[in-house]
Design brief:
This protein is α+β, with helices and mostly antiparallel strands and 208 residues long. It is 34% helix and 28% strand. The protein is built from four helices and seven strands. The protein has helices spanning 38-62, 89-104, 109-130, 175-181; strands at 10-18, 21-30, 78-84, 134-141, 144-151, 184-190, 193-201. The strands form two sheets. It has a five-stranded antiparallel beta sheet with strand order 3-4-5-7-6. A two-stranded antiparallel sheet has the order 1-2. A hairpin with a 2-residue loop joins strand 1 and strand 2 (21-30). It starts with 9 loop residues before the first strand and ends in a 7-residue tail after the last strand. 29% of the residues are buried.
Length: 208
């Protein structure tokens, strides 16, 4: 015999949020009217945040290292990646990697200087604020150098428009320098981690 389902009286959709970004959502059906007062709304949002952080923890646990190295690179674009150890000594290694790579690509010294300053800030942030290692990727496409630092443990997405107002916020230390030197920069988070990137335009062509 068919069983009649309870009549739905209220419905709510709540975003699943992690590090300030929406990762998905969940839906609740109620068989009685709901007021959705501020306290109830806050509780529902709290559950969404807990689910989001739980998803990120699971994803980071199963996501293999080398995510940047595994990314497909368009034809004609030079690429190099480097794994950074989970301590501050890794910053010097990242600088050496970038200096050696950019010299081999014959990038102008002024661009290399700015790239190393920006890279040092991002790698330092990743190591200090996550307590883990990170990846560095350099991409050279004609006159544009894009540098990305990806970590698997950050919980903060940095809004470039807020750097001047809050330059010492978590994951924001030194980003005012990046904002001043780079042509453009930004950050994004997904279930596997966070990526912060910056772009520098070359003053001269790199040799083929």
């Amino acid at each position: 015999m068919d069983r009649q389902l309870p009549k739905m009286m209220s419905l709510v959709t709540v975003p699943v949020v992690a590090a300030g970004q929406v990762m998905g959502g969940y839906i609740l059906f109620y068989d009685c009217p709901q007021s959705f007062d501020p306290s109830q709304v806050s509780d529902l949002e709290g559950v969404g945040a807990q689910l989001g952080e739980g998803l990120r923890r699971v994803q980071r646990a199963v996501t293999p290292a080398g995510a940047l190295a595994a990314m497909a690179v368009p034809g004609g674009v030079r690429a190099a990646t480097h794994s950074v150890a989970p301590d501050t000594h890794g910053v010097a290694g990242a600088r050496h990697f970038a200096s050696r790579t950019l010299a081999a690509w014959d990038v102008d010294e002024a661009v290399v200087y700015n790239a190393l300053l920006c890279l040092s800030e991002l790698v330092t942030n990743a190591v200090i604020h996550t307590g883990a290692g990170c990846e560095v990727q350099l991409l050279l496409d004609e006159q544009v150098l894009t540098t990305t630092v990806r970590d698997g443990g950050s919980n903060v997405v940095v809004d470039p428009s807020r750097v001047e107002q809050d330059p010492l916020a978590a994951h924001g230390r030194g980003l005012a320098l990046v904002d001043a030197l780079a042509t453009g920069w930004g950050s994004e988070v997904d279930l596997g981690g966070m990526s912060v990137w910056f772009v520098l335009e070359l003053g001269v062509s790199a040799r083929g």
